[in-house]
Amino acid sequence: MKKFQLGEFEEIVLLTIGILHGEAYSVSIKKEIEERLSRSVSLGGLHTALERLEKKGYIKSRDGDPTPDRAGRPKRYVEVTALGIKAMEYSKSTRDSLWKALPKGVVGIRKSIRS
Q: How many domains does the chain divide into?
């Protein structure tokens, strides 16, 4: 069953939106991901992920106030919806279940993840 299907990048974006709590817009999300994960993010790829997440109902967007430094255009803020929170919880429980199923000694990390 593909309940709450999230790709890796979508999951990262969704978690980052939650971290930014009310201050998430494309540039702030990009910056946060790059700083936390030392991972380069293209704005095009990010916008595609945001569109997919909104289409799935995992996030919702709203326009902020227009600003002069953006030639009068507003920032588009995003936030996680209740469905998005369920998707994040499902993703975490699925990953936790897989990690716990690893036999002892595999990759030498099973013991360390329980601490």
A: 1
Is-contact 49 9, C-beta < 8 A?
A: yes
20 is a domain residue: yes
Closest to 45 measured CA to CA, from 36, 56, 34: 34
Enter the DSSP assignment of 73: P
pLDDT digits (tens, 9 = 90+) for 94-105: 999 998 898 887
Gap between the Cα atoms of 70 and 65, Å rounded: 10
Summarised one tens digit per residue, pLDDT across range 34-73 is: 999 999 999 999 999 999 999 999 999 999 888 787 777 8
Would you state the structure tokens that stand for residue 65, as one six-digit string? 């106030």
DSSP secondary-structure letter at 105? T
Structural domain of 21: 8-113
